[in-house]
Every structure is written in structure tokens, then in C-alpha cells.
């Protein structure tokens, strides 16, 4: 059995591994920072400003998120295609390949209704004065901009977790070398040369 340690994998394989891991961890960090950093800051702003700022964050993040999930999935798919289908790295890369684009339907069906409500808020409050504290008077507490932002941030953390799991799988697959190490020719000896 040949060892991976004595035979260097093709550059395209290594590049695909690096791109898949880098893109997916960047996507994980982006999604997590939206929930932990951006949304709490937005919630400190008056409702009209918070809704407009959220729309800007959403518009920017949408392009980045879709692109990174596609790049991550294509990279791990390429790596999996070049691996033994019975190996753990293949299974981990296949799982990552499925997980990365799964954030798109998750976004559409789980986060989408909140996105729609926040978009409506951004449009309806666009001409409102920032000083108008009664701009959301009569709105149920669960439908205020802050409540919607809080729901969005929580569901976005689930999206980050999906990406994070895929990133862990891709990294684990890259670090798992058990399938590549041959045991033939390894043995114990006596005397000064104990390992041959």
C-alpha cells in the first residue's frame, strides 16, 4: 500500500481542499458575526434606521453567502470525487458537499418569512423620521423591527451551525490520514534499532 506521506497529492486536490475549508470557514464566520455583532448593534438604532441598515447588510450578505456556499460545495465535491468511496474522508467531504448548499433552502423556508417582514419594514419606514418614537405604535411586540431582528439573528445562528458542521467535516477529512498510511514494512526489532 502506498503512503500519502511519500506521494504528494496533485496540486489541484490540495487547492480544492484549501479553498473548500477557507470558503466554508469564512462563511461560518460571516454568518456568526451577523448574529453576534451586527444585529445587536442594529437593535440599538431607532426602528426606521435599524430596518434600513438591516436591508443593507442583507443585500451585501446575500451575494457573499450564496457565492461562498457554492464555492465550498464545489471544492469539497471535487475532493470527494478523487477519494476512495469507502473511506472516511470521502464520506466527510460528501456530507460537507451536501451541507453547504443546504443553507439556501434553509434560508428560503426558515429565514425567508422574516426576511420578507424586515424588507417590508425597511420600505414602509424609509420615509419615517428617526426621532419618531411612535413609528411602531400599534404594532404587536412580536412584529416590531427589534423583535424581527432578534428572530432573524437566532435563525441565522442555525444557518451558521449548518455551515460550521460542513466546515468541520471538510477539515476533518483533510486531516484524516488513516486511509493513506500503509502498515506493511513496519515492525519491531531488537537491539538498538527497535523500530524498523
UniProtKB/TrEMBL annotation:
It is found in: Membrane. Keywords: Membrane, Transmembrane, Transmembrane helix. It holds the Pfam family Anthrone_oxy. InterPro entries: Anthrone_oxy (IPR013901). It is a multi-pass membrane protein. The chain crosses the membrane at residues 63-81, 93-114, 157-175. GO terms for cellular component: membrane. Its main location: membrane. PANTHER family: ANTHRONE OXYGENASE ENCC, DUF1772-DOMAIN-CONTAINING PROTEIN. Belongs to the anthrone oxygenase family. This is DUF1772-domain-containing protein.
